[in-house]
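hey so u asked for the seq, here:
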Amino acid sequence: MDKAAGWEASITAWLDAVDGVVWGPAMLVLLLGTGLYLTLGLYLMPIRRIWTGFRLLMLGRKIIDSDKGDITPFQSLMTALSATIGNGNIVGVAAAIAIGGPGAVFWMWMTALVGMATKYGEAVLAILFRETDTKGNHVGGPMYYIKNGLGRHWAWLGFAFAFFATIAGFGIGNMFQAKAVVDVVNGNLGIPAWQTGAVMMVLTFLVIIGGVKRIGRVSEHLVPFMALFYIIGGLFIVFSNIADVPEGLLFIVRNAFTPTAAVGGFAGAGIWIGIQQGVARGIFSNEAGLGSAPIAHAAARGNDPVRLGMIAMLGTFIDTILVCTITALVIVTVHVPMTMADGTTHMVAAWETGKSGAELSMLAFGGGMWGGRWVVMVGSILFAYTTILGWSYYGERAAQYLFGEKIITPYRYLWVAFVFIGSVIEFKTIITIADIMNALMAIPNLIALLLLSGTIFKLTRASKAAMKGDLSER
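ran it, structure tokens below
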């Protein structure tokens, strides 16, 4: 047992070291730098045309026969959101604050603002360079815009992305999500892990066996419901503490540029830790730059890459600027009772208690409203389930690029099996492996975005919708 424990400790230490390297300064500069470069190259279009994007989204619910693609633009965004709105919005935000302090939220915002341009560029290229497979399905994503946009000399880069994405899905989009659901359900209802895992396995199979069209139909209805359910619960708490919100926002901004002192159960954090946590958890949540979302947007019905890209960029805004901010404000503004070392009890901000992850989110929501813990529990379950559905499609398409269409059915069965495996095993390194694979996916994608940025800028400048908000041609 001691030898096994030693091996486990060595592997964990090695993974932590690798994680620290891949999410070091170079990666943060590459992610934020690419997003900032695209934002400036687009003359802030993603920020200026955010409402045009929402108008296009509403128009994107309609089916037009002349449009190429498999699912409506609305369904493609909901499919992408099904993967991005996950436990990163609950566990990730709470973990970022617990480790890096409230200032980490500011860096999540910055990542999201420039990430809108990144997500836009990804979708534009995905639509422009997508292909049709032998079954008539539209397939695309970084591996395809690398191959078709950069040429055969860069084929190895597309292969690298597909390889990392195929593996990453089982961590970030499968086992991590399944384990999060099991922990929440077991902690609140006492239901054994294997029972929860079995139910999730069956529900996952029933949807993904039908491919992207069934995933799109389910996401179209489930994602808006789950997002509104969580947002309404969070906003109720925020407005109940509205007097503390302005100070909470200022506190987040101030702590982004100053070390966060140790207080209550919070151990304190430096500025760099706050930046690292904010950027890493922001990317973990909204996936801007990873190259995952454009795989879903490549299946969208439409012939104009720019219009579809403007819909795609909403994913980052909704995920981080809306959902993650609500979670953060609840954690920062809600006060809960805490027993001090001298035995006395004082009311302290939830983030000061030393709790982390889902436990911190439940504590804050529970302290903010009656039944708040149930909002987090139900939200966590739905967020995780839809993430499993969305990432099953991402991983499937990446595997198809590597091994051909024959891999699709076996991959779906393997995906379902890992939902159960992730539910029942104690895999403490899941989140570390997921972080590493996120970085390894992002590198090929970000290189391609930079090399193809001229194409993105040229198409955008030629678009009336992007430059003037003109939707008349639709």
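The beta strands are 131-132, 138-139, 335-339, 345-349. The domain at 2-468 is CATH 1.20.1740.10 (Amino acid/polyamine transporter I).
lmk if thats what u needed
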